[in-house]
Fold this sequence. Notes:
By secondary structure, the chain is mostly helical. The relative contact order is 0.21. The protein contains 16 helices and no strands. The radius of gyration is 22 Å and the shape is globular.
Amino acid sequence: MAEATPQTEQPELHRAIGPKLLLFFVVGDILGTGIYALTGNVAGKIGGALWLPFLLAFVVAFLTAFSYLELVGKYPKAAGAALYTNRAFKIHFLTFMVAFAVMCSGITSASSAALAFGRTYLRQLLVEFFDVALAPESLVITGIAIVFIAALAIINFRGVSESVKANVVLTCIELSGLVIIIAIGAYAIAVGDGEPSRLTEIHVPSGSNIMLAVTSATALAFFAMVGFEDSVNMAEECRDPVRIFPRAMLIGMAVAATIYVLVAITSSLLIPSEELAKAGSSALLRVVTVGAPGFPLWIFALIGLLAVINSALINMLMASRLLYGMANERIIPSFFGTVHPFRRTPWISIVFTTGVAVILVSTADIGKLGGTTSLLLLIVFTIVNVACLVLRKEKAEHKHFRAPTWAPVLGAITCGYLAFPVLSGRPWDDYKIAGWLLLAGLVLWGINRVLHGKVEIHPEKLGK
């Protein structure tokens, strides 16, 4: 491949992120919709041993993180999975589908956040301040979730300058809500409340087995651990990423996992799993009500609201930007790369991703959207783990983190297992939603091939 000429070279991004800011970014990227919205759904699949799937999801994510760390150390570019897939396999269609799957995961994640916004936290605030009680799945609440998605589109259209320092503030807010839950659990143990025997209860559905129950719950809980891979896209804005990334990512993931397990233990101690499952996305609100009756519930509802808003905005920004990048690279119709003449934002990509999100919010529930998000990323992570092994034959000129070989091997096996039909116990609705989304990508790819023929892909430019 010819070297870039001076005319095509771009200035480097400003390297403003040090180890502490990167650590906060990793923690903040993981915390959010997953734990705030899906605790009840996971309890419905596993029973009182709610902590187990969160712990197992962490182990699977941790294995994959080793592969990401080796690859970002070797190729410190803001491109992520698409870049690694392209370098390892050099199959343009596979590279495109990986990038499109990552984009779709952003839309499904934001859609689940929109439902949590309307059906859970805003609904609770309406009860607290206006004494208005709406059914979680009423047309009004669904309409609110759609308006929320539209509001994100408007913010996206106007243009958002993201600041990692602002992310620190939002991370602290999200973290404070989970600390409240953990503190409630500690108090309950101190005064002798709670039922410790629930922590070992695993509910096995009729016609299933304990292995399937655990893997099914883990596959859903994995949604709570995704997000760490977004930090890879900050590589070009970090000071000395090869040195600071391994420590920041691994510590950040460990912190998030510890918080999740403690929140899960608290929830099971205070409330039977059947009640948590019935509460659904309101499970943590129920924990606060039972464990600390005197605590102002509106405070926790507001924290939860901010947590899901942050998650949804980040994911919709990522999705529209990635779609724009694919259009700009001419691997989907260039129509999607249209930039508004005044706002200078990719408005066609914003409209498209918003439209998909509105359809998902109108037709699916939080559990299905969370499950679809984890499915899409488990597929991507399986490919990344294999790519890590394939790219061992490429030697970098600089020193970088090298994962122990067993990590990407086990990462590929466990991610593939949790994504595989039947073995994972995952509901077929997850595969249907993911299938329709990826089919849309296939159609766009086909249209582009007819219009422009085979096009060279430059993954490192997709997120630009």
